[in-house]
Amino acid sequence: MSTPTQRLAELGLTLPPVAKPLAAYTPAITVGNQVWVSGQLPLRDGKLVATGRLGDAVEPAEGAEAAKVAALNALAAVADQAGGLDNVARILKAVVFVASTTDFTAQPQVANGASELLGEVFGTPHVRSAVGVAVLPIDAPVEVELVAELAAR
């Protein structure tokens, strides 16, 4: 059976550096056998991969890709706390915030960009919320929070 790191590599992905906080918070903390990750934006090389709201400037497929990037950034924060991605048993919960117009109702499909990546890397299900919001920091289209369970050591 392959490890989360190997599955990530099979997808042609690597973990980015942990994103620097935009305000007064820490990217992640460990409590007991869980890692709680602050909301992560879809930043690649310090720049948003898309800006604006779903239902307006951002198409659903573009939003799903942004959610995948944000989830990858969240996994980087998890791995940093866990001492590596292979020390993570599974993702317990994902919360995906989707900046969207009042008539946009496909938040779950946008959030699938994050959930599908997490499923491919860990091979286990997780619970999830997909929440439509008016606006996100620095005009990001999505933001992803995670709660992960550490592997027994």
TrEMBL record:
Signal peptide: none annotated. Pfam families: YjgF_endoribonc. It comes from Arachnia propionica. InterPro entries: Endoribo_LPSP/chorism_mut-like (IPR013813), RutC-like_sf (IPR035959). This is Putative endoribonuclease L-PSP. Residues 7-150 form the Endoribonuclease L-PSP/chorismate mutase-like domain. CDD domains: YjgF_YER057c_UK114_like_1 (cd02199).
